[in-house]
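#onboarding

Welcome to the new folks! Below is a worked example of what a typical request in this channel looks like: someone posts a single protein sequence, and someone else replies with the predicted structure as tokens. Don't worry about understanding the tokens yet, we'll cover that in week two.

Example request:
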Amino acid sequence: MSTHAAADLIHAFRKPVLQRSWERLALYLSVYALTVLLTCLLWQRPSTLALAYALISILLLARWHSRSEVAYFCLAALLGPAGEFVAVGFGAWHYSLPLLKIPVWLPLAYGISGLFLNKVAGLLILAKPRSERCGGALEVRAGVRRAAVPLPVNAYSEGLRGGDA
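Example response:
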């Protein structure tokens, strides 16, 4: 395999992965923006906001329902409001329109946030900085078990140094 063919193969492999990563990030940020917008618009109607968050939660968990994703959602939905409950109980702050010191929608908001953070962290883990010789740019790995096509040493060093290696 020529060095140019190997380089083309690597480029063809990386570009779709990078494109999918940006699409995923846009989706995750859209979900985040939607939850913030709903909170801003519906906080005075806690039951309606809880219903909207329940619908979002069902849709998200229908899409992402691995054991770890469900665990992130449930742990965030339980531990986040528990901490809020304790802090509110000690007078650190208070909520308007609470049900038992915290809003009824808050556990679902924490669950959605936990799942959001899990998904974004997964994308950030896939993006890793290249070596300093490459200018510190980001490259995206397809995952832990990706197939790599190594470039011959001469072609690799020529590509890094602009052909005058």
